[in-house]
Amino acid sequence: MKKLVLLGGGYGNMRVLRELLPNHLPNDVTITLIDRVPYHSLKTEYYALAAGTISDQEVRVAFPEHPNLNIIYSEVTGIDLDQKQVLLSGSDPVSFDELIIGLGCDDKYHDIPGADTYTYSIQTIGEARDTYQKLNNLPANSIVSIVGGGLSGIELASELRESRPDLIIKLFDRGKTILSSFPERISRYVQNWFNMNGVDVVNEANITKVEDQLLFNNDEPVHTDVIVWTAGIQPNKIVRDLNVEKDKQGRVILTKYHNIPNYENVYVVGDCASLPYAPSAQLAEGQAEQIVTILTKRWEGKELPEEMPTIKLKGVLGSLGKKQGFGLMADRAITGRIARILKSGVLWMYKFHKG
Ligand SMILES: Cc1cc2nc3c(=O)[nH]c(=O)nc-3n(C[C@H](O)[C@H](O)[C@H](O)COP(=O)(O)OP(=O)(O)OC[C@H]3O[C@@H](n4cnc5c(N)ncnc54)[C@H](O)[C@@H]3O)c2cc1C
């Protein structure tokens, strides 16, 4: 039997399973999925988990069951590409014939002193739970600072506003205006929402140091009760430690067939892969579909396509609490209730297909 090992049961590898298990898995291939968490976690909803507006159960989806699928719940501690082995904490290494690395990303702290020690995170389900506890145990009128005005910072700030109207919320953003790379209409809409809902957006922020309950913005100290970090990501530490070629963001440079150069049997999917787009769940899923096509052809000994098609992305949708949202669909700006309904619809469809 050939052994395909999947590291991480996130958006990328869940799509691999969804494509392979019902239709394309040859009888002589077994799959081993390894994840530290015993379910697929809906990372795109961690902001709501941290804010306390959805329950823990709502961000969990059961892994599929199949006679040729074996699941190991363990912490991956390393990968030996040459020995074809995955190292696990507290148990024997797992060998592979083919490997798909889909371990997602970690926070990036840009070498800002104290940022990793004194800030909370929503990058893993465990960290989002810790952040939920900290935020929701705060007494009235506490100050929460969210560093990073990208999609997850905006979603967290707005959701927390609806969850805890008594808190003082500050959102620190580097840009002159919030979402400065988006069309002006979206940027204005989001800023208006924050103005109307009493979230203080601090533009042109430059966090230089973090201490316990103290944030230094352009070297000026800002007292705050809790700081949440949403100001950047980098590939998972296991991937950062791999001795292979990476791009400027530390993501693994791949061949057009999504495998590591010189390792035809090792693929990287999702946030750890160097692709010509910003990392996202939909990108991970689109790439996973292509990996399944390549894997299947290689198993069948068929020729690979000369070029791989471009991965099609549908757009971006962000929420502003439970009723409003914004987005870019096919380069068209959308704002308001319709954007929020679309976002909820996407999540519903995702859960429906996985359920
Ligand atoms: C708040 C927030 C909102 C977002 N909103 C959107 C959105 O609206 N649309 C969108 O497209 N994208 C969104 N994203 C980005 C999206 O979540 C990621 O791009 C996507 O999850 C990447 O998928 P992946 O398969 O690479 O990894 P992930 O989905 O992150 O999965 C990684 C898996 O690896 C496991 N793992 C990690 N390290 C180890 C280890 N050492 N040992 C064992 N297991 C391990 C984890 O438990 C996890 O199951 C959002 C992200 C955040 C944080």
Automatic annotation (TrEMBL):
Its cofactor is FAD. It comes from the Bacteria. The keyword Flavoprotein applies. Keywords: FAD, Flavoprotein, Oxidoreductase. Residues 3-284 form the FAD/NAD(P)-binding domain. Belongs to the NADH dehydrogenase family. This is NADH dehydrogenase. It comes from Lederbergia wuyishanensis.
